TrEMBL record:
It comes from the Bacteria. Residues 75-255 form the IclR-ED domain. GO terms for molecular function: DNA binding; DNA-binding transcription factor activity. Residues 13-74 form the HTH iclR-type domain. The keyword Transmembrane helix does not apply. Keywords: DNA-binding, Transcription, Transcription regulation. Coiled coil: none annotated. It comes from Massilia oculi. SUPFAM superfamilies: GAF domain-like, Winged helix' DNA-binding domain. This is IclR family transcriptional regulator. GO terms for biological process: negative regulation of DNA-templated transcription.
Length: 261
């Protein structure tokens, strides 16, 4: 009888299931575990367990303490901290975002940085805001074309900013887009001096934004809070409310601003 050749999808799922079985086995021990024990607990053949563990050592999901013994790796802690940070930011921001939306009647966005883009992770909005284009949760935007993205670029050093410009080519979306490095550097200097950032129809024509940063207990910029509105409706009076709202969310996360000397 001819054996059925496994499909790539089936094989991939099987590898993931085996990897998870090994991670679950490692998680049940406080001390480093031998290959023999991990194979027994996970139900895998020792050679299979060894091969998968080697791959996870390379990606830092697992640490090899000494030949033949393993423990969970630091990469899991790093990823866990990322998830924890994003979840706590959303929880801390939700009520404040709704209050700011009620006051302005415009879309309020919560965004985080992911590589060379920002990702919208939450928003408060209503159909009456008049916005024709609203970035959905999970939507993305280039750092240099968005108000929150400029906040994140402004905390990078000169070398990192220039590397970003090289990678992305500073491509534009509208006639207002910043596509030259010198102009972007001037813009970022203003962001640092003011403590907030703007998007003047740089991502979408007809839409303007203003953003203020949210910091965690270590002082790290972890998210941006922004108001998006039709270009002719964005009011400067909202800026103070925006900055104060971002500050309150930061305080909830444990951030304490340095006193003015």
């Amino acid at each position: 009888m001819k054996m059925e050749t496994p499909t790539p999808a089936k094989t991939s799922i099987q590898v993931i299931e085996r990897m998870m079985a090994l991670l679950d086995a490692l998680a049940s021990y406080t001390d480093p575990v031998s290959l023999k024990e991990l194979a027994r607990v996970s139900g895998l053949h020792p050679s299979t367990a060894h091969r998968i563990l080697n791959d996870m050592v390379v990606t830092r999901f697992v640490d090899r303490v000494e030949p033949g013994t393993y423990r969970l790796g630091m990469r899991l802690l790093e990823l866990g901290n990322v998830v924890k940070s994003r979840l706590s930011v959303r929880e801390a921001a939700l009520d404040a975002m709704r209050a700011l939306h009620r006051k302005t009647q415009q879309t309020v966005n919560l965004s985080v940085r992911q590589g060379d883009e920002i990702v919208y992770i939450d928003r408060a909005f209503s159909e009456r805001s008049g916005m024709q284009v609203v970035r959905a949760i999970g939507g993305r935007g280039p750092l240099h074309l968005t108000s929150t993205g400029k906040l994140f670029l402004s905390v990078d050093d000169v070398k990192a900013i220039r590397a970003y410009a090289t990678r992305t080519g500073l491509s534009g979306h509208t006639r207002n887009s910043i596509t030259e490095l010198a102009r972007l550097e001037r813009e970022l200097s203003l962001v640092r001096a003011r403590g907030y950032a703007r998007d003047n129809e740089e991502l979408e024509l007809g839409v303007r934004c203003m953003a203020a940063g949210i910091h965690d207990d270590s002082g790290k910029l972890v998210a941006g809070l922004s108001i998006s509105a039709p270009a002719d409706r964005l009011q400067e009076d909202w800026l103070e409310d925006l900055v104060q709202t971002a500050s309150r969310i930061s305080s909830t996360l444990g951030y304490r601003a340095a006193p003015n000397l």
